[in-house]
């Protein structure tokens, strides 16, 4: 067994959650390591949906300006290493194995304290911080894993904070009202650090404004301080315009399909405008090129054209609504076959109710994952009249593709972990 495989096994064998959430274990590790997080020029991104897409837009916009960019994201779509990347390149196996070896003694030492050993996500975050601090990068984009306030990424002191939007997700951990969830996300707001947000829900937005006011953090709100206008959807993607009081972009194109992606692109552009205001060298004429090079797997991604097969990691209600809206815009009037698998802690019944609007035939299936529901459990919750239970997703793909007619569309969605498996299947 290679060092890399051993490293991955060790990381995954760590505890997933602690009874007592908090930043104490992260702070302890950073102290032991000599505070590498303080060397980083970071941008912190939280939100219910759109974090990954916003990070990708921003990473590409900054790279187009000639900057070297580190990104810390979760979960991964193809390989674990993607979570820690530099200029879009995942950390090499050998470096990940070496980092694991370096962090093991630290985890053991922490285990011997009253704080207890670090969780899997804390380990990965600490590894990312060490890796980025060694690489002398221009900017690091940190995507929050869960919530914000107690997320292990919240040890950074960023230049800017971004909160994409706020919806009901992870309600068993973050709270079951928008206000409670907004309060957790608002935990990333730091003193005098500008906040950029795409949050539209008034109740959530008032929580963010209040927390920003407490922290003397200037707030920039989509629809108030900067605007985005969706012009049209096309085969190439979404055409839109971005406007602030001092800048008007003219027509821009996002290759990422979906009306919601236009909001994510606007958040990334407003972040660029803030950096420009802070004295960072930014050439606005490169914005268009930066957007055009943006690609994010499993976000309304076409992985086959015969039949047309779309994969999308819509793993909560808001993501599912955005997916349905995009399906309507791009495949109106087409017969849609759905392959679906989800985790047990998700509002599956509601998500399937939303999908019902565009789906004609549904295949409920499962995959190897600790919290994955079975096909028959999903079928019981399905409001789609023509629902078929298939015990194995490979069989579901075979059944769907053998019955699909020319011009029909195959849509595969549900858990992001499921989509990761689906991508592997299509690559073989």
TrEMBL record:
Every Mur ligase C-terminal domain range: 299-415
Catalytic activity: 7,8-dihydropteroate + L-glutamate + ATP = 7,8-dihydrofolate + ADP + phosphate + H(+); (6S)-5,6,7,8-tetrahydrofolyl-(gamma-L-Glu)(n) + L-glutamate + ATP = (6S)-5,6,7,8-tetrahydrofolyl-(gamma-L-Glu)(n+1) + ADP + phosphate + H(+)
Protein name: Dihydrofolate synthase/folylpolyglutamate synthase
Associated pathway: Cofactor biosynthesis; tetrahydrofolylpolyglutamate biosynthesis; Cofactor biosynthesis; tetrahydrofolate biosynthesis; 7,8-dihydrofolate from 2-amino-4-hydroxy-6-hydroxymethyl-7,8-dihydropteridine diphosphate and 4-aminobenzoate: step 2/2
Swiss-Prot/TrEMBL cofactor(s): Mg(2+)
Similarity comment: family membership: Belongs to the folylpolyglutamate synthase family.
Gene3D superfamilies cross-referenced by the UniProt entry: Mur ligase, C-terminal domain, Mur-like, catalytic domain
Subunit structure: Monomer.
Gene Ontology molecular function terms on file: ATP binding; dihydrofolate synthase activity; metal ion binding; tetrahydrofolylpolyglutamate synthase activity
UniProt KW keywords: ATP-binding, Folate biosynthesis, Ligase, Magnesium, Metal-binding, Nucleotide-binding
NCBIfam families, per database record: folC
Enzyme class, broadest EC rank: ligase
PROSITE patterns: FOLYLPOLYGLU_SYNT_1, FOLYLPOLYGLU_SYNT_2
Species whose genome carries this gene: Halobacillus alkaliphilus
Stored SUPFAM superfamilies: MurD-like peptide ligases, catalytic domain, MurD-like peptide ligases, peptide-binding domain
Pfam family for this entry, one: Mur_ligase_M
One GO CC term, this protein: cytoplasm
